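[recover] target loaded
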């Protein structure tokens, strides 16, 4: 399968007066053309920082320390600021957490759409721009009148759909949706995710959905990556990750999901995630891991393929007996 996005050994650090914060540390993954990829993890795990790094929107004191981000083979980190500005929207577009943060409150939607086209050198008349926008709004289930209003005249779900429509405007090959449903009620959340899915199929674009709602992820993604404390700890097909997680953190996340059939006590990850400025040595998950071994405290596990198309960073996979106990407990 062709990779549309390749992220290799990405490191994003924040240089603060209290020390260096490794927000994203040595993360590698790829996204295939036309794929729906999910990035899951707790708040502060580095998911949104990865999205901002792909868009080259990391602000000081943050810095991309090293690594490579290739979009359709082109290294985005080697582009000039102007070249990168042109790639945004045309090559990679982003739908952010709060629609209000990305929409200009004092401009009508059609003006914002026309601005996006103009800034990429598209020469269209006001009428042509409105016609294109109305077509995009229809694709996300909105009426033509939405083109003529200010953002505050729309509901939260409508604003998020407008953002998806704007993200489609130059037919990018990759759309990043960073927790697009976090401020919405459950019904509207489902609608927005369905809209995103329709858009992805229509454009045949790849979509990265960032979030922490496992139900939404299962509904949307075909492959997922699990982030913990700035590290990608597991990655694989969504069915495999849900049925047979290969990392203890993922396993506990799965066991924390409620089920209608089983009324057992839900599992929680004991303790709190480590401070980003003071990550533990060895495996970052070791202070909370029920399977911790001596070597986990000293030695960082490699991120490697542990089952067909499934990757994880855990020493258990070097210990056949211990790995067996992990899979047996999951299956039970
Ligand atoms: Fe747990 Fe060790 Fe695996 Fe880390 S490497 S997840 S501490 S068993």
């Amino acid at each position: 399968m062709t990779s549309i996005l390749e992220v290799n050994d990405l490191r994003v650090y924040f240089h603060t007066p209290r020390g260096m914060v490794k927000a994203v540390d040595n993360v590698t993954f790829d996204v295939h053309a036309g794929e729906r990829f999910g990035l899951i993890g707790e708040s502060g795990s580095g998911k949104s920082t990865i999205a901002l790094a792909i868009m080259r929107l990391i602000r000081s004191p943050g810095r991309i320390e090293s690594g490579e981000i290739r979009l359709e083979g082109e290294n985005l980190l080697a582009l000039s600021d102007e070249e990168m500005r042109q790639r945004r929207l045309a090559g990679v577009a982003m739908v952010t957490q709060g629609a209000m943060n990305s929409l200009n409150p004092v401009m009508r939607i059609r003006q914002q759409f026309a601005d996006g086209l103009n800034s990429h050198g598209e020469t269209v008349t006001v009428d042509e721009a409105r016609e294109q926008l109305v077509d995009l709004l229809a694709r996300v289930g909105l009426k033509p009148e939405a083109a003529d209003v200010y953002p505050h005249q729309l509901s939260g779900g409508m604003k998020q759909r407008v953002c998806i429509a704007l993200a489609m405007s130059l037919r990018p090959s990759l759309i990043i949706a960073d927790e697009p449903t976090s401020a919405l009620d459950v019904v509207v959340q489902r609608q927005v995710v369905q809209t995103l899915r329709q858009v992805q199929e229509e454009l045949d674009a790849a979509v990265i959905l960032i979030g922490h709602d496992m139900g939404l992820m299962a509904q949307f993604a075909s492959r997922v990556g699990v982030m913990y404390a700035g590290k990608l700890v597991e990655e694989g097909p969504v069915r495999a990750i849900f049925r047979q997680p290969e990392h203890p953190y993922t396993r506990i996340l799965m066991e924390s999901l409620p089920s209608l059939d089983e009324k057992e006590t839900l599992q929680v990850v004991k303790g709190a995630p480590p401070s980003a400025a003071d990550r533990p040595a060895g495996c970052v998950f070791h202070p909370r891991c029920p399977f911790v071994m001596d070597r986990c405290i000293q030695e960082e596990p490699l991120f490697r393929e542990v089952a067909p198309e499934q990757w994880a960073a855990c020493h258990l996979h070097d210990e056949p007996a211990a790995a067996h106990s992990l899979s047996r407990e999951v299956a039970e």
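[recover] notes: The chain is about 35% helix and 25% strand.
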